[in-house]
Structures are given as structure tokens and as C-alpha cells.
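Explain this one:

_____
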Amino acid sequence: MNRPLFLPLAACTEPSLVGGKAAGLARLIAGGFAVPSGFCVTTEAYAHAFRVPGFSPTMQWQAALLASGVERERILSHCRTIIQNFDIAELTAQIAEQVRGLHLSPPGSWAVRSSATNEDGAHASFAGVYRTRLGIPPGEIGSAVKDLWLSIWDDRVLNYHERSGLSGAPPAMAVVIQPMLDACSAGVAYSIHPLTGRATQVAINAVAGLAAALVDGRATPDQYVVEMAETGQPLQIREKTITRQSQALRVTEQGLRDVPLSDADAASGTLSDDQIFELARRAKQIE
């Protein structure tokens, strides 16, 4: 049976086909949580790029794991070249059809996000290891997908793979495609405090604008710790650290731009108390 090249996010239930991130979004949708519309370019599309006579991604990946230095880079470069030579014209046309099927008006720009088969796993997250492309025009989504495919064949991915004690099987790359949201603030919420390990504390890191500035280390987030009842309801904000951020990464007509923040906005922090409580409540519901 032919495996699909595309799936709506709600149907992304098979991690080997859609990767960890898409499967996680499908679980959120099934749980009734709000998830922006979108679709997944499956690992089957990635596999098409490697249908070259005599080429085995598994053998190349295992050879790269055993190699080091110049030899490892030679193997990785060879695999990247095969992907770069793959003609994505047909895939780009199919992606355009998927975009039109979402019936968004106006279409705007897009987030193209990695969803590798070893990503967001129970024992290794690969957070920040693979590429994400933001603010992509509809006509450039296909090229952005290829760029994410390329990001598997990188020395830091192999190093992370080895440190995590994963098997010698190579990951495959699915890609999540969603419309860009012009976020006022964004960040990460931990349903269990990552430092103290306390299940009754939710930790939130937030930046003004899009979260890319947090992920790549360009922005120091505001930090909040919320004390939670055993029922999953917030009791109080135990800690609040405001870093007085001077700018926010926003979606503009000219693409993604760092926009200056006023002194008042910088001093007030990225989240209101009501937003902090709601995020803490949602984090526990998702957990």
C-alpha cells in the first residue's frame, strides 16, 4: 500500500510516518486543545529524495556514526548533495495544492517546522537541533522543506544521537507546515519544574513576539513559577523575573523583523497574571 506524502495534522498518528512533533500536535487536537491549522509532509516524501540506485541512507548513517573528522564530513556532504540534487518541482506544486486546501485568506507567510522520527521522544527531544524556517512565502515552502531534510545530515545531529544512546537506525524527516501567527508573546511551559523536579510547580519562560529569539539564544526570557494545587489549578505566582526585553520578533509585511518595545512594555513583562495562570492550567491539562 502506498504511504501518503501529506496528512492533515489531526491524522498524524503514526510517528514513523509523521515524526514526533506532528504526532504530538495530533494528540493535542484529539484532546480538544487549540492547534493552528496545517498539514504534514510525511517521511515518505523525504524517502523519495533518496531513491538513487545503489544508495542506502541506513548504511551511510551507520558509516558516519563510525567515522570522524574529515571522513565523517565527506559522508554527510555526499548525502546532502543527493538531497540538493532532488527535483522538488512536483513536490512544490503538491504543497501549493495542500496550502490552497486550507482555505486561508489571505494566505500570508508560513512556518515550516521539523518533525523528525527521533524528535520530541521520551528519552531525547532534539530541541533546537534541527532547522525551523519561519515567515516563508507560499512559493518557497518546497525549498524550505528540502532545507529541513538537509538538516538531518549534520555533525551536531550525529553527536546528539550518540550522546542520547540511540540505535544506529537513521532518523527520517517529516515536516509540519502551518500559517505564521503574529504572536504578542511566546515561549515554553514546563508542567514539572525542570530544576526542582516539583510536580506542583509550573515553570514558564516567555519572550515578546515569536519564540525563535528564545530558541536561538538571542533573547533572555521572562521567567515565572506558578504553585499548583493537586487538582491542577494554579494557587499563586511564586516567582516572577522580568528581564525588560528591548525588542520583539514580529511578522511584518517585510518579513520577520525585530521591533523595538516601549519602556512601559519592557517593564510590564511579557505575560499578565491571568495569562500566567491560564498557561499553567493548560500545561497541567496537557500533562
